[in-house]
Amino acid sequence: MNVKTILAAKGGDVISIEPTADLAAAAQLLSKHRIGAVVILGAGNRLAGILSERDIVRAIAEQGAAALNVPVGQVMTRNVVTCGENDSISELMERMTERKFRHMPVLKGERLIGVISIGDVVKSRVQEIESDAAAMRDYIQTA
Fold first, then answer.
1. 3-state SS of the chain: helix, strand, coil percent to 5?
2. Which 3 state secondary structure label does DSSP give 52?
3. What is the Cα–Cα distance from 17 to 19, expressed in whole angstroms?
4. Which residues make beta-bridge pairs with 106?
5. Is the CA virtual torsion 56, 62, 68, 72 positive or negative?
6. Of 65, 62, 56, whose CA–CA distance to 23 is shortest?
7. C-alpha dihedral over 84, 34, 62, 69, to 10 degrees?
8. Which domains, ranges and CATH numbers included, belong to the chain?
9. For residue range 62-109, what is the model confidence (pLDDT) as tens digits?
């Protein structure tokens, strides 16, 4: 199973915000959509960064409530680890675990086509294991 399979099931909708928006707006967006990270798009709708709940908490811990007025572009993660639609689920699990993040933008060339969360990866892996178990049960019953 690969990223393309996950995106086919969940869709490629991406919630994004501009780097000039403040952290308060980003926090409201995360809450409204019940998501843990938002993609920051720059000129030409190109991926400029990603902002997670952790980034917001870190900024508030360092700057207090005034951080909510800081532009997203000052707090976002700029060196975003991305994946392609042909990457395998095991590759994603390894990268996410190793680098300790839960959201990964999916690029096709330089175009953003979706975001995969660790929840998406786990759900996909569980479905794969359940399918394998069902196939094994069927095989055993017919043997």
1. 55, 25, 20
2. strand
3. 7
4. 83, 114
5. negative
6. 56
7. 100
8. 3-142 (3.10.580.10)
9. 999 999 999 999 999 999 999 999 999 888 989 999 999 999 999 998
Cα–Cα dist 84/112, whole Å? 10
Residue with tokens 């909510």: 68
* Residue 94 Cα to chain centre, angstroms: 14
Phi, psi of 101 (to 5 degrees): -135, 165
Q: Which residues, other chains included, contact 35 with Cβ-Cβ below 8 Å and sequence gap of 6+? A: 15, 117
Q: Please indicate whether residue 18 or residue 127 has the higher confidence score (pLDDT).
A: 18
How many Å apart are CA 95 and CA 89, to the nearest integer?
A: 10
**% of the chain at pLDDT higher than 70:** 99
Tokens of 82: 């991305």
Residue ranges in the chain assigned as alpha helix (H): 3-10, 23-33, 53-63, 72-75, 89-99, 118-142
Q: Quote the pTM value.
A: 0.83
Structure tokens that stand for 25 in this block: 């707006």
